[in-house]
Structures are given as structure tokens and as C-alpha cells.
TrEMBL record:
Basic and acidic residues: bias regions: 196-224
Record-annotated disulphide pairs: C82-C116
Signal peptide: 1-19
Subcellular location: Endoplasmic reticulum membrane
Name under which the protein is recorded: Calmegin
Keywords attached to this entry: Chaperone, Disulfide bond, Endoplasmic reticulum, Membrane, Signal, Transmembrane, Transmembrane helix
Gene3D superfamilies: 2.60.120.200, Calreticulin/calnexin, P domain
Amino acid sequence: MSFINILFLFSQRLHVGVRLFLLGRWEVEELKENTVPGDKGLVLKSAAKHHAISSMLTKAFIFDKKPLIVQYEVNFQGGIDCGGAYIKLLSSTDDLDLELFFDKTPYTIMFGPDKCGEDYKLHFIIRHKNPKTGEYDEKHAKRPDVDLKKFYLDKKTHLYTLVLKPDDTFEMFIDQSVISKGSLLEDMVPPVNPPKEIDDPADKKPDDWDERQKIRDPNAVKPDDWDEDEPSKIEDLDAVKPEGWLDYEPQYVPDPRAKKPKDWDEEMDGEWEAPQVPNPKCATAPGCGLWVRPMKNNPKYKGKWKAPMIVNPNYQGIWSPRKIPNPDYFEDPHPFEMTPISAVGLELWSMTSDIYFDNFIICSEKEVADRWAADGWGLKKLVASANEPGMFSQLVTAAEDHPWLWVLYILTLALPVGLCVLFCWPAKKTDEDFDLKKPDISVPFTKGEVKQGRGELEDDEIDLEDKENEDIGEDGKSVTS
């Protein structure tokens, strides 16, 4: 597999930092849930401690004409309170010593998840070298416009991928779906290249510079009839006391059901008084106690007089310092060409233990990373899917966390059952139905009987016509006997 530029496996020798504050413990273990037989990963075991572990790459990566692809798996097996699971690609330097790997060890790229409180992040940070001063500055990719919370809390193994291309563009993936993409020249904070011009630090705003767009009219005069002493509210003299108002009933009365406590000591506690409760007589009356007129807005009120606003004739606009050429300006047209990397490491602090890492790969072909993912993360995903509970179990689990869901479940089941009973249940038959619909009895007839019956029917029709003729006279009027 010579097409793989760089490959980091756990079978290689791992270096653990020996700094005194790096007391965290690492283990190689299987997943606690959805275990793949024979598959193990690197597990951060200690909570509230610093951890550092690293390994040299089989070959240093030089940023020239090939993309850089970084990919690995993370599983927050116990959830995550506050901590990171990001990876550092360590810069190639003459004094790089992995036995002394700690937080100040120079890195070129940092990538991966990080969380504290309710702030869920996916870091992509580069340390960019200033071509004028030789100093390094951190440049952070803009935050993805995606809710990352589920990737930290579902206790599943997730695949994190960074693709950095020689055309200075990048893409970040979670579970092989694009989470964010952008340009090193346009989407880093602060920008890789500083502005060509800056504000002149020696330029100061003149004392007489007027930034007020509007001012009080200096020529305005308060009107003679303007009374500032008029109150904003006055009594409503047209108001009338409602009929039935109980002038001599207090709004609150002693609670008649209250009793003095047995242990009440009047010498120590004073004279006992029953607590006050709303007067029940006031509940059915317009009001109780002394009636006072309500207040209304005073039509004569104008308040304190102020001169009206006018456009400031001396307005000079919002002041800003003049621009000068930026003495620190430089232009790096290809920030992709950054410091080579020769090692990879995890340098982390976490309040949560049992963070699982697996299947690190650094290469230049996305197809290689995808095949690597299929053999590792893809298998874990299949096992997790196979072990997921059925729909009924998921509904019960959700209701245990949110009991109000039981009401929704019951209503959802009761509605179709009720509609079925309403429209499909057979209606009860009444005695009228039986009288109106008598069962037909099949009786055999002979040919002669059929003719005889037809003759009788014709005779009945003739008799009926004769009767109608008798009832109606020649002039069309009704005739009664």
C-alpha cells in the first residue's frame, strides 16, 4: 500500500509524556457497548487529569502537491461533561522529543471534537508561520453551522475526517457527511493574511469634532401656556360609586376557623390574633371599604418642556482615524504550504473518563480513507444498528424519561379505536324495523294460479278506477255521498 503517504496504527510504539502534571492513564480496551469481537481501541481512563500520548509517523508529511487527510474514531462511552478528543499533528522540529510531549509541544494542525458546558465544538486550527517575523499564530476555522450535540451524547462511535487540499480549501466530515467547508484564505479567524491598511494609532479625534446628527433647537421658546406643574393623573369627577358598595365592610377579616395554638404563650408571644382572610361579603359586592374616585389621564398634562430636535448644521459625520499602510502586512497566497508534520498525538484534559479512540489514519487519498472507514467504523456502525432496541422499546424508554408521553400514546391509540367503534359497530334494530321489513317466504306457483292472480289484479284496478269516477263529478268537483 505505497499509495498511503502516512499511516498511524496502535500497533506502533506509543510515547507517553512524562511531565509531572500529565498523570492520566491510558488503556487498550474493547468498547463497553456494541463490542466488535477482537477489536480494541485506545481509552482515556482518568477523569480530571491531563493525558498525553503520541507516536512518530512512518514518514513525515510535507505540504506540497498532495492533499492531507486525517481521520479517526471517537466514542464518548460515558457521555462528556467537559473535555476534548482532538488530535494534534506535531511539527517537524530538530528538538521534537515525544517522551516530553506536553501542551507546549509545537503542532501544525489540531482537529477534532471539544466540549465544555453547552458549547459543542469541532476544532480545526492551524499554526501559521508569519513570513516576516517567523512567529506562529493560531488560525481557527469558522464554527460549523450544524448542531453537534448528538455526536457527544448518544454514546456511539463517530468518525471524524479532515480533508485539506493544496488549493487552500478544506472540508470537515462527521460519519462521512460534510459538516463544514471553506478556504484557508477566507474562512479562518483571525485571517491568515493581515489587512493592507490599518487605522493610524497616532491619529486622534479633534476636540471640536461634532458627531451629533440632531440637536435641540437653540431658538425654540417654551409657549406661555405650557404648564409643567400639571399632574399626569387627576381624579375622575364623573365617576359614581357603584351601587351596592359596602362602605363599612373591611376587605379582610380574622379567619373564623383559626384557633390559637395550644403552645401559644401570651407573655412570650404577645396577644394572639387570628390571621386575616378575604372578607366573604366582599366577594359578591362591587367593593368594600372607603370608596375613592378612580384616577384618569389629565388632558392638560404636558410634562417638562424640551426644545424640539433639528438637524445639526455642524454635523461632521462619525469620526474614524485615517488609514495608513500596515507595517506588518504580508501576503501568503498558499497557506496550505505549512510546517511539515512528523508525529501525531493526543494531549487532552477531561472531566470524563472512558473516551475511546480508534483507527487513526493520515493519508492523501480519500478513497483510501473511505476503505479504511468501511473496515473499522463501518463494522462498528453495523453492530450498533443490529443491537438497537425495537420501536416499542424505544417508545417505552422515551416515556420513562418524559412521562407526559404516556398521555400522547394513549390518545394516539384511543382515537382510531373510538372512530372504528363509532362508524363500524352495527346499529341496534327497533321493533319498527321488524314490522316494516317482514321476511319474504318463497311459495311455488302453478301456471294457472299465476293467470288467476293476474286476473284478480286487473279486476282490482278496474274497481279502483270506478270508485275514483264516482268521487269526482263531471265538472271536476268532489262529490260526497
